[in-house]
Write a structure and sequence with these properties.
Layout: E1 5-7, H1 27-35, H2 48-51, E2 54-60, E3 63-68, H3 78-91, E4 96-101, H4 113-122, E5 124-125, H5 137-141, E6 160-164, E7 172-177, E8 183-187
Parallel strand pairs: 1-4, 3-4, 5-8
Antiparallel strand pairs: 2-3, 6-7, 7-8
The protein binds zinc ion.
């Protein structure tokens, strides 16, 4: 049964984030370590921590809680991520409630630099940094990526063109390299 709930939650005040593992050898550290093996269902070379989806681990009177934020609110992989997190911890003897946080919205700036390098090696052009963190970030996300210079992951040329604003998933755009003629996905910044 899916026990995850979806709540808006402000988590800026939570000390551990997606970019670093807690140093202390406590249960939270163990959980973060275990969850290193849980990868993005659509991009199996990236862990949920590296892509910035895994946000925090907490203990509460109701037990262990794991907070995740989808890359976008309608992400079809969300249930899969919740199940994967729960199963990974159950196998190790942890009962955890997976809580989906929609606020603040996920940002591609939460992706680690390591994750961006792995994306590139996987053949997906990593997202550019957002121009600024403003309330209009959703509008910026819609800015045509054809205005951006996106380097080809195959040959490195920036002589590329956007052929579709939506690639294999809604969070990616389809590009074609005009140098080597290979099509590739670009992970859109937002
Ligand atoms: Zn190319």
């Amino acid at each position: 049964m899916n026990i995850a709930v979806s709540v808006p939650l402000i988590i800026q005040d939570l000390p551990d984030g997606p970019l670093a593992l807690p140093a202390k050898k406590d249960v939270h550290h163990a959980v973060w370590q275990l969850l290193e093996s849980v990868t993005d269902p659509e991009i199996p070379v990236l862990s949920l921590r590296e892509i910035g989806v895994l946000r925090a681990v907490r203990s509460s009177s109701e037990g262990l809680q794991v907070f995740i934020t989808p890359t976008y609110s309608g992400c079809p992989a969300m249930e899969q991520m919740q199940d994967d997190v729960r199963q990974c911890l159950e196998v190790a003897g942890f009962q955890a409630k997976v809580i989906t946080c929609l606020s603040p919205a996920w940002s591609s700036d939460w992706m680690t630099s390591e994750a961006k390098a792995k994306l590139l090696a996987y053949g997906i052009a990593p997202p550019h940094s957002r121009p600024s963190h403003t309330e209009n970030s959703r509008v910026q996300w819609m800015k045509p990526s054809s205005f951006l210079k996106v380097a080809c992951p195959q040959c490195g040329s920036d002589n590329t063109t956007e052929t579709s604003h939506f690639g294999s998933t809604a969070c990616k755009a389809m590009f074609t390299c005009l140098a080597c003629m290979e099509p590739f996905d670009y992970f859109k910044p937002y």
